[in-house]
Amino acid sequence: MQPMIDIIRSNGWLTADVLREGLARGWASKRDVVDFALDRLGAGHDGPEVMRLLDAEQLDLATLQALLQRSQNTDTPASVKSPLSPWMYATLVQITEGRGGEDEKLDQLEELYASFGYPEQLRECSRYYVPTHDQQLSVGEHTESPLLAMARLLETLKKELSGEA
Amino acid sequence: MLFHVPFFRRAIALCALALALTLPRLGLAQSPPPSTQQMLPPHYAAQIFSPIQRAAFQHRSAFGSLCSLAPLACALIDRPFALNAKLELFIRPKAPDGSTSLLLPFALSVPILGRAEVGVGSCFAMAWASSDKSSPLPSPAASIPTGLCPMWVAAKGVMLPIFRDPHRHPAIAAEYLLEYQAGPFTGLNQLGLPGPLSKVSVIYRHPLGDLELSGAATVLLDHISRAGTLQIGAHAGYRVPFGEHLWIFGQAILQMPSWGPVLLDAELVNKVDLSPPAAGTLAIGAQQRADFGFGVGLTLILTKSDIETRVDLLFRLLSFEVGPHIKPLFPPKPKPEPAPKPDVAFHAQGASALCPSGMQPAPPAIATPGAPQPTDAVQCVPTPPQPRQCSPGLVPAPPPSRECVMPRLAPPSPLWGHPCEFVPFDGSPHLRVGRIDRSGEYCEWDGLRLPLGAIIAPPQPGRANTASPPPNANQESRALISPPKPASDRHAQNPPFAREGGLGGKPIFKGHSDPAQPSSQRKGEPERETTSGFPSLNPMAAGAAPPREAAQKTPATQDHFDPQTASVPGSPMASGFVDRGKKAAEHVGQLARVVRDHGLGAVVPSKEDIKTWAIDLKHQCLDHMKDCLEKKAHEAADELNEFRKKSPDDKLYTVGGWGFDAAASAAASAVVPGAGAVFGGVVRTGEKAVGKALAKKAGKEAFEEIAEHTDEAAAKRLLREAEERARREAERRAKREVGEEATHGAGPTQPAPRGLSNVSRVGSAAKADPHHAFPNLVDNFADDARRFEIPTRGPGGEIVRRSELFQVEGSLNGQAGVFEWIVDQGQMTHRRFIPGGVVTGAPNQIVRR
Q: Could you give the C-alpha distances from B497 to B151, B545, B594, in angstroms and in order?
């Protein structure tokens, strides 16, 4: 399974903000920060913050957060409006590509829902979600599949982050 | 008018005389006016000795039968009447003038009722010159006198206190002593002058048990020359704890100022200063006071004056006292009774040596009466067992073994592992507080150990040494919470309680009582027994607990020692306290809230076990039920306060001081004189037949027992208040339930389960952030949560089951919202606080702001 950071990087959505968010939530490591600094250096950005980020593994998290905040890209894609969105996309990709069964994926979706603070866009992916008028549905009746809602959200997110929406 | 004129004349004349005697002569050896010498008798100057010789007469022991063998006047007077006689020896070993002098003071005195004393006395003085010719007497013409001193008469009386016992309270006394030359008593007075002398003293005495402190001011005045001095001194005496009336003491006396005339010796053409030298004196001594008996003493007196430094020895050679003493003033220390010697005749040659090991010679009484006694045979009997000293943690093995063994565990209580509850006396629903330990005497709640039967009183603001209100005990999220409120009762004053029924008696806080966790161990305390703990091997534990408890310190889950789970002081396992301490502190907070809102309550077994426990308790406490309950109340208060203080996280909830305290014991005395109310409180909450029957019986018993006690009025009042509160609570709940029915109808709601801490958390419910891991305290209010059945989808969108959604409104960190959780297939899969949320019946509502 491809790491989340690689999914984000491969799509060109890895900015200092996104990395900072991932670092804060434990989805990115200091090593990822060094790689990010190397990428920036390769792209011709050799500001003092980038040079210091090269030494990320020796710095504490607070310092890294401050450096990342100061080294925001000038070429940040305008489509990445929320630094959380790339991570949500990457997580959904991981769940989709994961080897677990469908029930397990539902569990993972529940956790994802909670991890991102119950965003409205993930609401329909929860197994406990049913439209208000369907609250009295009995066992055996059908509603939309949470996994289908997840696939639809993936597409939506990709379009948004790619600026196609 | 005619009457007043002579009175004023006399008063003015007396004042003038006093001034003439004192004021012009005050100071350090002030010289009198030239006219003074003219007033002295003829040849007076010829009788005056040198200052050093005069100084030899300076000190006597104080007047009084109970005074210390030292110069300072004392305020202690014997009682009721006695004749006191004493003979002393004053040795001035070697004065700077080369002389050695002896003084043999003797006196008789009669104390009167402990408040006054009169006496007479004198002394015999003798001195001889040293053989050391290098220090000739300065005045060879004046031979050192040998003979009787002047006679003195003295009286003293206690002025204060008037009504209280002056021996046991601070006292002030005054003393007057007059030395007068008459008959054979023609010697020199205490100032070394050949005239009468007055000595006036004012004394203050302060008794402090076996210690006495006193101070005195004394003026000595020679009547002819008007020479005199002021002595101010302090005294400290201590009655040593051995012997009878044996005291050690010390005195410090300052002699200054002094005054007196300066005479002109016509023959030697020298000036003779009659003023006593300024001096300081230290005296230390030991004395057996003659309190209805004989006394002796020895005092060492060091005097440093402007003319010499000397050491005097003062012996009390003999002192005795006879009189109608009823009792000694200072009762003698009780003497241990000498052990009666057994009247047993032993054979010569050491009969015991003839008996084998473990046997001893039989006493003669054992021998068969009438049987011929062999004169040289020794009958041996087994040596009676002696008390054995065992190492800490071990106990003597049963005879005949003489070894020390590990203590065997007492059989567990039949109540072991059964649930225990806290029952408010106001009739409110009870709170499940853990399980009964192996001894059957304690309720164990995650390390919080509360005696069954303990009355717990509400925390008292300002009583604890930490400044905090009842903790909300959010140990996991470390967030401030307020109690969740039921949707229909958001403004209710009292937080809701767990109700009877629900999950079928499952413990509300079972989730906290993870048996895998190590038992708690507190620093400096005996190891505690927990439901997962093991009996203490620490001897302190046995010492701290009642014998029965100590004997029954056993594991709750198994009977063998398991080093993996045993908590040994100082071992790494003791660190397990950190986590369990948090849980215990959390429970303390829960209890605090309940007793704060509902008043007194008791920790008791559940109603199914109350009868068994009550029988055991009554057997245990017999006729001192009140003391039993008071003890339990104290123990519970200590336990709660201790955990309250030990939880570092409680500081998160601090606002003002509070603390459980021993007010509980007063409550135990007043409310439950016969423990009837304890049982009554329990069964009032019961709804089944057994509960009702017990309630009727116990309630009746409680009132009957209360009526028999002196606390009747207070107890009845408290019980009436409790009944009234219970009635109001019932009405309030009834109204609320009716309101809910009206609002929601039968709807989807059903009786809520009891507590949720026994439901394992998985998925997002196990997250540790504050909005997910809101405190377990919320679980206590599960009964007040609205319960909904919600459809649960499978991966394909099909409704595969219905899960339970619980919602209860409350606040977290001061922000109002709704606590919600989902129990899905027996597991808590969702647990969340939604700021601004309300009860909706659907999870994860979107709050529009």
A: 92, 32, 8
Count of alpha carbons within 13 angstroms of residue A47, beta-carbon side: 11
Q: Which residues of chain A are within 8 Å of residue B846 when distances are taken between CB atoms?
A: 120, 123
* Partner-chain residue, chosen from A103, A135, A138, that has the shortest CB–CB distance to B790: A135
Which residue of B772, B795, B805 is in closest CB contact with A102? B795
For residue B805, the chain A residues in CB contact (below 8 A) are 128
ipTM above 0.85, yes or no: yes
Q: Are residues B799 and B694 in the same domain?
A: no
Residue whose entry in the numeric block shows the structure tokens 């992916």: A125
Is residue B98 within 8 A of residue B110, CB to CB? The reply is no
Q: At what angle do helices B712-744 and B689-707 cross, to 10 degrees?
A: 150
To the nearest 5 percent, what fractions of chain B are helix, strand and coil?
Answer: 25, 30, 45
State how far the alpha carbon of B819 is from the alpha carbons of A124, B46, B449, B588, B594, in Å: 21, 112, 30, 22, 20
Whether residues B125 and B243 share a domain: the answer is yes
| B596 and B723 both lie in a single domain | yes
B223, amino acid identity: H
Tracing tokens 């409120």 back to the chain, one arrives at B485
Helix (H, G, I), strand (E, B) or coil at B693: helix
Query: For chain B, what is the domain count?
Result: 3
Over the Cα atoms of chain A, what is R_g?
A: 18
**Are B822 and A138 an interchain contact pair (Cβ–Cβ within 8 Å)?**
no
Separation of alpha carbons B300 and B314, rounded Å? 6
Tell me which H or E stretch contains B679. Answer: helix B676-684
pLDDT in tens, B416-442: 888 888 887 776 677 778 888 888 888
Dist CA B848 CA B759 (whole Å): 31
Task: Give the CB-side neighbour count of residue B360, counting CA atoms within 13 A.
Answer: 7
Tens of pLDDT, residue by residue over B115-173, are 899 999 998 888 776 555 444 444 444 456 688 888 999 999 999 888 877 877 889 99
Lowest mean pLDDT among A27-36, B404-413, B632-641, B733-742: B733-742
Of residues B123 and B593, the one with the higher pLDDT is B123
Query: Is the CB of A140 less than 8 angstroms away from the CB of B805?
Result: no
Contact criterion met (CB below 8 Å) for B226 and B17: no
Q: Which residue of B has its CA nearest to A103?
A: B795
B785 and B675 fall within a common domain: no
Q: What is the distance between the alpha carbons of residues B53 and B47, in angstroms, rounded to a whole number? A: 12
Omega within 30 of 0 (cis) for the link into B507:
no
Beta carbons of A128 and B802 less than 8 Å apart: no
Q: Give me the residue label for tokens 């006495």.
A: B212
d(CA B56, CA B94): 10
Domains of chain A, residue spans: 4-70, 84-161
Q: Which domain holds residue B819?
A: 763-835
Question: Using CA atoms, how far apart are residues B440 and B542, in angstroms rounded to an integer?
Answer: 16
User: Is there a contact between B83 and B171 (Cβ–Cβ < 8 Å)?
Assistant: no
If one counts every other C-beta atom within 10 angstroms of the C-beta of residue B689, the result is 8
Question: Roughly how many angstroms between the first and final C-alpha of chain B, as a whole number?
Answer: 103
AA letter at A158? K
Please state, in angstroms and rounded to a whole number, the distance separating the CA atoms of residues B275 and B31: 9
More confident residue, B241 or B706: B241
